[in-house]
């Protein structure tokens, strides 16, 4: 779900672009967006994909069943496009027509997406309530007796 829709209820064509980016990452990795991936850095799929992209180690993101037969250049293009699609700010996301051009031409590989801000999460900090920190925001869920 696009951040602007989740936080403010605002929906636009760029919300669909965000969803396309998520779907593309799920297809490449064979993993769900909500699954917890890197225990050392507390990363979900968006953060894990960006970390591997930043470290130039995208082959680790690819579903193992297709890892040996896929083109790394195509993986780089697809993951870069996906990361551009899931940018936090609506105006930073490409249009779907631009996405199509980038996928067909491979030009996305030279672009640099920003790190997603809601990609990391830390687990509960005490037993009376659950506190989760997302970037610079925190959400506290109080439980009754």
From TrEMBL:
Source species, domain of life: Eukaryota
Species name: Rhynchospora pubera
GO MF terms, alphabetically ordered: protein kinase activity
Pfam families for the chain: PK_Tyr_Ser-Thr
Gene3D superfamilies: Transferase(Phosphotransferase) domain 1
Record-annotated Serine-threonine/tyrosine-protein kinase catalytic domain positions: 1-100
Keywords for the protein's UniProt record, in alphabetical order: Kinase, Transferase
Protein name per its UniProtKB record: Serine/threonine-protein kinase
